[in-house]
């Protein structure tokens, strides 16, 4: 789908990582359990679910309150090292993620990674991919406010604009699996697709929801952006609730 100036409406895709590209949430949860128990505490499934998609600084604070007697930085480094160790043994790819990344790369659609994981883990995942799919990485250690604040997504849009001043958040699709991530993406103004995985997500007319990325294509993303811009054939404007019609 092209704009009236013959420019593509879909200019970039902003990817969450944990739970969206890779199924690393079980690795994080395992690391949380081990850390809390090593400090004599207990860690429930419900507590673990509350950390899905949150910034590592926020998560470290919750773990401290659960009895972990370490500084925030020590908690983050301990958890990240364990997840990296697991990833080096096996990268648990999410269905359809690599295929969609490859199609976007072939089509020349720019991609950026926007994750609350820190750079060492993000680089590990990116290095496991067969092509340089991501133009840059926005990681949790490069922002001051983590998801659900939109800072990470706003930073990604600004970096993309350096080469394309006409680009706006409405030319970008954000792919997210968690409530904090979806909230951040929506607040940034990006066209947002929720792909719930570990934690179910409530209905929200401000974003689309897909069961999986499996068999999803560039054309699907282009149609979502076209709807945002009100340029679907036969319609001058499309309400935000129409995004969910592509479920």
Write the layout of secondary structure elements.
Blueprint: E1 12-15, H1 25-38, H2 45-49, H3 56-65, H4 72-89, H5 97-107, E2 110-114, H6 119-127, E3 136-138, H7 151-161, E4 172-176, H8 179-188, E5 191-194, E6 208-209, H9 218-228
Parallel strand pairs: 1-2, 1-4, 2-3, 4-5, 5-6
Helix pairs in contact: 1-4, 3-4, 4-6
Short characterization:
By secondary structure, the protein is α/β, with parallel strands linked by helices.
Q: Terminal Cα separation, in Å?
A: 19 Å
What letter string, H or E per element, gives the SSE order? EHHHHHEHEHEHEEH
Biggest β-sheet strands, sense, barrel: 6 strands, parallel
Give helix % range. Answer: 40-55%
Question: What is the strand tally?
Answer: 6
Explain what the structure shows.
- The protein is α/β, with parallel strands linked by helices and 247 residues long.
- The protein is built from 9 helices and 6 strands; from the N terminus they run βαααααβαβαβαββα.
- Helix 8 (179-188) links the parallel strand 4 (172-176) and strand 5.
- It is globular.
Main attributes of the structure:
alpha/beta; six-stranded parallel sheet
